[in-house]
Amino acid sequence: MIKPILILVLINFLFYGNCFSQSVRVFDSNDMQPVSNVYIYNTNKTKTTTTDQRGTGNISSFNISDTLVFQHPAYKNISASYSSIKNADFLLMLDKKTIYLSPIVISANKWEQNRKEVPSKISAISATEISFENPQTSADILGISNEVFIQKSQLGGGSPMIRGFSTSSVLLVIDGVRMNNAIYRSGNIQNVISIDGNNVENVEIVFGPGSVIYGSDALGGVMDFHTKNVKLAYIDKTNFSINAFTRYSSSNQEKTAHFNVNFGKKKWGTYTGITYSGFDDLKMGNHDNIEYQRQEYVDTYNGKDTILKNPDPNTQIYSGYNQFNLLQKIRYKPNNFININYSFHYSNSSNIPRYDRLIQYDDNVLKYAEWYYGPQKWMMNALEIKYFKKNQVFDAAKMTIALQNIEESRIDRKYRSNELRTRTENVDVYTANFDFEKNIGNRNTLFYGIEANINKVISSGRTTIINAAESVKSASRYPDGDNNYKSYAAYSSFKSNISDKTTLVAGLRYSYIKLNSTFLDTSFYNFPFDKIDVNTGSLNGSLGFVYRPSDSWQFNSNLSSGFRAPNLDDIAKVFDSEPGNVIVPNEDLGPEYAYNIDIGIIRNVSEKAKIDLTMFYTLLKDAMVRRDFTIDGKDSIMYDGVLSKVEAVVNASGASIYGASFTIYSELIRNFSIRSNLTYTYGRDDEDIPLRHVAPLFGSTALTYKSKRTEIELYANYNSKKCFKDLAPSEAQKPFIYATDGNGNPYSPSWWTINIKSSTKINEFLRINLGIEN
After folding, report:
1. Each residue's pLDDT tens digit, 342-391
2. Helix, strand, coil tally for the chain in percent (to 5)
3. pLDDT for residue 636
4. 283: which of 302, 519, 583, 613 is 20 to 30 A away, CA to CA?
């Protein structure tokens, strides 16, 4: 305790020597960082003050005989006499609460609001949790919640699944801008890893349909990433800070380096964050994994493919990749009414091997010599302007305009083939949002806004003849002409605190979707049409109640609807899904709709324990599913030189999904706490066929020790098996990525891992994190 106090005294002397002695400095006892927004008052509350960004609170108005109370929602309250504070050189350290969930969320209505007034289930991941867990990618950040299931077909992947929905049916949002675009596919995707997790401040996950606020795609939930903000100076001094770290992981030889710098004056400032990560081939665990081992691989030498034995079958040869990320932010705050933020995001990866295809066999021979995603490039320019001057129309207004450029490609070559096929997509996404907040009296708030989203897609295909060193045009993944996807919407949400114990939230949104797609070159496929047009709209609503009979209990109920309009990938894709099957366009495909009810119970026990139980039921109508199909009266066509059965995405009659999630946090004894999560989901369509993205039962249990300088967590992650009868038909046709049961059918076995992580604060400038996983 003495050493941290001496460090704080030195910092106070060096950097805050000009502060009055009547100013108290408040720090986090664990990481010794200043704590802002601490409410300080005397016992009869006649005098109050609040700490600023530097953790400084002016207590000059307090009497020397006063007892001061320090209160913050994330920390345990402390009472101290004025004289004892003076004897400690006006330095005070607060201990974090064991049971704490941020009282503020912004994802539910795009504005900050009290979490206790939100009927939706929300899981928040803080900057402290991200720093401690040290996730390799942003997909792994979502896994910290232990309520989002992360599927990985390859090391360079991470497809989040929420309540039986995934990929294009769950929405990714970063700094208020939706990332989902017109080519987000129904199969698993890895776009989330384009977000630099090392520049993420926190994440909020909204479970259940979010279409009222976010429109199409938000059927299962919304994952809202907030990147680090530019910190301005509170006084005339410059707010300057530099942070850097390196990370090494043995399982995939990860080598990550990150650097960020903040420079802030009173009215303007900048933030720059840079990350480079390199991953070698992943090495899996050696316990009960024989069916997943990589026994052989294809090596190409002097233009000839050869199948070689893998010297270490636990090493997933051809799974490594690297990635570079840059975040640049500029903030300008000319006065208290206007706040302007510009952000530039850039992410670029190397080739990312498609590992699940590289282990695929055809007649007992590896099918592919090469199969990888080309460099995944994502760039976003975004401008956000907030205006806080009240008038009759709004109390606060926000305009967000963004331009995203995405480039994706797929490159494959079959074993001993002379043809290397490349299919490339370039997407430009233009987004404009105008959001408003208006308080009506002391208990009611109106949120409303309008949105426009325009996608332009260019799809092309080339085949390179390797020996001839030439390339020719080949079939593209999507139509090779003009591809436009446009969405326009208006929404309104009303929140009323009917009483101190009851909150009502109701919302309504109308969305209009227009899609145009054209085939220019029809020589590759003889479809009975050369153009696809979609015009559709949807009206969605929500109605939620929150009842708080006491500080210890909270009951939530929420009715909501959502929709997903077919995008370019759903309606116009031509792609082989597995051997002998090919997906073809379906010009008659329509939207799917979700109707959901949530029931939630939250119980707090004297700030020592917290229990959170949420149950849900979702009815899916006109569900988009893959089924046998005919094209021009034919149930099979020639694709890639193989007569393949025709399939298409069609509207099924419906589906049902239900489940529950359970979380408990509890402080056992001083410095020790326990946390456990469990999530169960079940889903079938009207033909009693399992839905593809319903995750098996999964959860996590952790025992945590926290002291002033050290945190240690021993935790277990676990996952139940998924039997053959619970696999969707499309998954049952992929035995090469599953284990085999006693009947020779594919299935996913259960598993569990024991892990330990620790974090130790060496001094004010150095922290060391260590972990042993699996």
Report:
1. 999 999 999 999 998 999 998 899 999 999 999 999 999 999 999 999 99
2. 10, 55, 35
3. 84
4. 302
Q: What is the rounded distance in angstroms from the CA atom of residue 610 to the CA atom of residue 677?
A: 12
Tell me the residue type at 525: Y
332: exposed, middle or buried (Cβ count in 10 Å: 0-12, 13-18, 19+):
middle
- C-alpha span between 106 and 174 (Å, rounded): 12
Report the chain's C-alpha Rg in angstroms.
28
What are residue 624's DSSP bridge partners?
651
If you count them, how many residues does the chain have? 774
CA angle 210, 216, 222 (to 5 degrees): 35
Q: How is residue 701 written in tokens?
A: 């249990």
Question: How much is the average pLDDT of 102-131?
Answer: 86
3-state secondary structure 450-515: EEEEEEEEEEEEEEEECCCCEEEECCCCCCCCCEEEEEEEEEEEEEEECCCCEEEEEEEEEEEEEE
Unique residue bearing structure tokens 């969930």: 101
Q: How many angstroms separate the Cα of 306 from the Cα of each of 158, 368, 369?
A: 31, 11, 9
Residue in 626, 423, 438, 592 with CA at minimum distance from that of residue 513: 592
pLDDT averaged over every residue in the chain = 89
Q: Quick: pLDDT tens for 240-283.
A: 999 999 999 999 999 999 999 999 999 999 999 999 999 999 99
* DSSP secondary structure letter of residue 228: P
Chain-centre distance for alpha carbon 662: 20
pLDDT band at 17 (very low <50, low <70, confident <90, very high): very low
Distance CA 164, CA 661 (A): 13
Which two structure tokens, joined as six digits, stand for 129?
A: 């949790």
The structure's pTM equals 0.89
